[in-house]
Amino acid sequence: MTNTWQDIKNANVVVVMGGNAAEAHPCGFKWVIEAKIENGAKLVVIDPRFTRTASVADYYAPIRPGTDIAFLSGVMHYLLEKDAIQHEYVRSYTNASLIVKEGFAFNEGLFSGYNEETHAYDRSSWDYELDEQGFAKSDDTWQNPRCVINLLKQHVSRYTPEMVSRICGTPQDKFLHVCELMASTAAPDKAMTSLFALGWTQHSVGAQNIRSMAMVQLLLGNIGVAGGGMNALRGHSNIQGLTDVGLLSNQMPGYMNLPSDKETSLDVYMKTKLFKPLRAGQTSYWQNYRKFFVSFQKAMFGDAAKAENDWAFDWLPKLDVPLYDIIKAFEMMNNGQMTGYICQGFNPLQAFPDRGKIRRGLSKLKFLVTMDPLDTETSRFWQDFGPQNPAKPSEIQTEVFQLPVTCFAEENGSLVNSARWLQWHWKAADGPGEAMSDIWIMAGLFHRLRELYRKEGGAFPDPLLNVTWKYTDPVSPDPEELAKEMNGRALADLTDPATNTVATKAGTLLDGFAQLRDDGTTASGCWIFTGCFTEKGNQMARRDATDPREQGIAPNWAWAWPANRRILYNRASADLEGKPWNPAKPVISWNGTRWVGIDVPDYGPTVKPSDGVGPFIMNAEGMGRLFARDMMAEGPFPEHYEPLESPVDNVLHPKVKSNPAARVFADDRAVFGSPKDFPYVATTYRLTEHFHYWTKHALINAILQPEEFIEIGEVLAKEKGIEQGGWVKVTSKRGEVICKAYVTKRIKPMMVDGKPTHVIGCPIHWGFTGQARKGYGANTLTPSVGDANTQTPEFKAFLVNIEKTSAPVAA
Ligand SMILES: Nc1nc2c(c(=O)[nH]1)N[C@H]1C(S)=C(S)[C@@H](COP(=O)(O)OP(=O)(O)OC[C@H]3O[C@@H](n4cnc5c(=O)[nH]c(N)nc54)[C@H](O)[C@@H]3O)O[C@H]1N2
Ligand SMILES: Nc1nc2c(c(=O)[nH]1)N[C@H]1C(S)=C(S)[C@@H](COP(=O)(O)OP(=O)(O)OC[C@H]3O[C@@H](n4cnc5c(=O)[nH]c(N)nc54)[C@H](O)[C@@H]3O)O[C@H]1N2
Ligand SMILES: [Mo]
């Protein structure tokens, strides 16, 4: 989230598109109701299904799964054509005026630089024209046809209301009404918030879905302001923390990149990190990258990380491919390229696409370790349930080690929520039976592995032998000690260059990442967390709910990264002089000498508005990007591509149907179905009564939602002779699910490119362990396809067939 849950109440328009907050985030959803009641906000829901969120909306519009880019590009077209944009904001804070260099082009579905063989782009043409000093050229009059705003106008001009309706199946009048509601927030004192989750991310164009709305929000001046922003409603309670501390295969803590094997020295690695500012006077905060990096290495390797050994750069793993995401891991398993797999708090047999492929992969391992409080399907994959399971358990050689672990309620620690708050929690009970904490198990593995390396040597023992491990209890480090290590401390007396006196004594916990240095005198395990545990104590444990303006910002409740800032890009909540756009709901303002207000300003409190530093300091131009330079895998502007399995051609450019840079392996492509055999669009989602695959272990939840079902509209049910509660067989090219049908008014056919299109809804929660009845699981049907940027699987749009059947023997 750029903003916070509480801040939603400040919105004038709340758009839930790509999520179903009332059911998946029922507790946080109260802030939407608060916005409606206290602020007269209009709630707009755009979803293929009429959800419980839709049931309390002021306006609902249906959409075919996988077509949000077409919808939102249509919104941009509308805003630009009607001139319903926040002009001053767009000119001052976005890259609308910057000039794109010659050579950038878009033709018949492809941007310049595409390589047919590698399915990837050379992105060098997606950049600005630079002047002699290396700054981006701009045209504030917007006359130059190559300035970003004009290229954007041209790019979205194809997305007329007729075209949007043809692609998305949304009736034109409904689409236009949504446009009007959104456009009403172009007024400087009005804000719209975008709440989204997996309805956007779980597509082969997931990241571009989100970018499209971010661009709409920039055009409307809704980023950085109270009641605005791009608000990803996160899933598991600590999934934000997962990316923060770098648990993705290509990252390190604090969104630093793991080096590739081509980056053979620290200098080479650093060359692509220290982005030079692209405009005079800009900050380009990643210029501090080296300080964060060296401090991380000091936290990892202590005294062994020295200037002479490039701060132990060689001891980091180096990637030989862009990343080892989960789709790739299972591809490798299937190809016999993986010996063992440690599955910590992860149930891939249930959670990952193409269940048959997951099972076949696990069957080829030598060993599988699961660390889980529950008996998961993955840890019993050899017993898999369903008609397509041909496996004979006796023929599977994989040795499975099940390690029972405690859960969050049985240990102290912190969770990072969607609003980036690090909140401390306290142990409530001891774990049952033989359960041990994740920390104890990981520490045990570390000690044993290090001992083996010590005794027997090995190809490259250095990283393991040199890791620091100075905990009071090395067998099970205390979560507070780990949190302090993440926060970071001074390793030597730090002098303040301005006064030449010691400002921070050696050993002191640091207050903020501005104190980090690249000379080895500071250590910090995760620079964005610096400030969470200081000499004043555990900031994450703070529970003071005082909210000075009653505007949803309680600065002394827990601690938010970065720097306890609650609204990211808050400099953009005020105009160029520092006056809030919306005086009724100010976030920060310039009082003539400094920034004051209810939030921590984006940068130094005394940086004058006249210095012209842009609010988007992590970008080298300091501006919000309507044109994404060289970042995204499939283009600097979002473009509508059909899901990899879709019922229609791409009406914009039939030759390029789907995302040309999507993550697909050849053997997965072989199991894509065609609309001839699988004529219906399927999508998958969760129900309020279950949390994934855990709560079926709890009797009360199992009673509430006892068995697997799919949802089907009345028209299709009638066509197929399917009755309410009757048995159906749903098939995709990858497998079949036999379950009950729920015939509903909540899903209606949509007219897509002149043809009626039916959507079938598949809740995801059933498997073969726990108290609920056994089910095949929705991922028996889903394709193994990943988003081009994030590799998130395309769970939300694929093709199936459905027919009436009789009760299966297994049921
Ligand atoms: N009760 C409960 N709550 C949960 C969870 C749970 O298992 N149970 N899981 C948690 C987790 S980990 C997560 S990640 C979140 C997920 O939170 P959400 O993303 O809100 O949940 P989903 O139910 O997966 O899907 C949301 C909606 O997206 C719609 N949708 C599908 N395709 C499209 C599309 O192409 N465009 C648009 N606009 N909408 C589409 C679906 O119809 C569905 O209503 O929920 C969290 N909260
Ligand atoms: N078709 C389809 N598939 C989906 C989705 C979808 O919308 N559609 N959603 C996807 C999403 S968003 C998600 S997040 C995944 C979820 O997929 P998973 O994360 O694999 O599933 P969960 O059941 O949430 O959690 C996995 C295990 O973590 C264990 N666990 C809980 N606490 C702890 C702990 O403290 N330590 C350890 N070691 N284990 C613990 C639980 O007991 C559980 O068995 O599913 C994905 N799969
Ligand atoms: Mo999730």
UniProtKB/TrEMBL annotation:
One of its GO terms (molecular function) is formate dehydrogenase (NAD+) activity. Residues 681-798 form the Molybdopterin dinucleotide-binding domain. GO terms for cellular component: periplasmic space. It is found in: Periplasm. Keywords: 4Fe-4S, Iron, Iron-sulfur, Metal-binding, Oxidoreductase, Periplasm, Selenocysteine, Signal. Its cofactor is [4Fe-4S] cluster. Coiled coil: none annotated. Residues 1-374 form the Molybdopterin oxidoreductase domain. GO terms for biological process: anaerobic respiration. It holds the Pfam family Molybdopterin. The keyword Transferase does not apply. Belongs to the prokaryotic molybdopterin-containing oxidoreductase family. This is Formate dehydrogenase. It comes from Dyella japonica A8.
